[in-house]
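Regression test case RT-17, inverse folding.

Input:
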């Protein structure tokens, strides 16, 4: 399935970028009326923004709503940057359709990589690449199993039983039982308390564990 790229701009911008539709790495969705877009926001992977209309209230509103999406700002030559939005990259127009296509594709790949590499949990950040749990300038090393455990408990948003944790993480391995879960939780809690003095990162409920 191709990525869907939102282009925020005027009809002139639509016409000037129409060539990009020939490229197969993504599809372009052009909008100059924000009210028609709201139902389709979830299908958008990235945003191209025409800098000349970026100050319009509705455009800024939508860009903020899509702040978790890569934003490529299209600039005209000699354009002085007064845009008050946090965008991922910019490109000077005129530019070739292939260059814009490649830039958008790379932005989406980079954004997906970062989303898969880092997990924000409460006031902590789980760095999956370095296998660390970080808070401000402090960090601890965590194992792959501990990363899986944190991610599972955080994503579930409700207590998970030891049985379900075994099923999701250990896949009912022959050498794993409920004591395995208890041991991993105990070790992780101890690490976190020793470094961050936090006793409530993982909470034990009757129904199971939760973050």
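Golden output:
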């Amino acid at each position: 399935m191709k990525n869907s790229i939102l282009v925020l701009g005027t009809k002139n911008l639509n016409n000037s970028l129409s060539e990009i539709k020939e490229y197969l790495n993504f599809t372009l969705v052009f909008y100059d009326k924000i009210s028609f877009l709201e139902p389709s926001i979830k299908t958008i992977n990235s945003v191209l923004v025409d800098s000349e209309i970026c100050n319009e209230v509705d455009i800024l509103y939508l860009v903020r709503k899509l702040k978790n999406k890569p934003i490529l700002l299209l600039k005209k030559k000699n354009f002085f940057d007064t845009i008050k939005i946090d965008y991922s990259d910019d490109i000077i127009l005129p530019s070739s359709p292939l260059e814009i296509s490649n830039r958008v594709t790379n932005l989406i790949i980079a954004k997906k990589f970062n989303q898969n590499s880092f997990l924000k949990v409460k006031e902590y950040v789980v760095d999956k690449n370095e296998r660390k749990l970080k808070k401000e300038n402090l960090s601890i090393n965590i194992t792959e199993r501990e990363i899986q455990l944190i991610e599972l408990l955080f994503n579930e948003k409700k207590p998970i039983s030891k049985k379900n944790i075994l099923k999701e993480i250990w896949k009912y391995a022959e050498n794993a039982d409920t004591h395995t879960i208890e041991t991993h939780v105990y070790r992780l809690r101890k690490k976190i308390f020793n470094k961050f003095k936090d006793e409530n990162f993982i909470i034990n409920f009757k129904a199971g564990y939760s973050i």
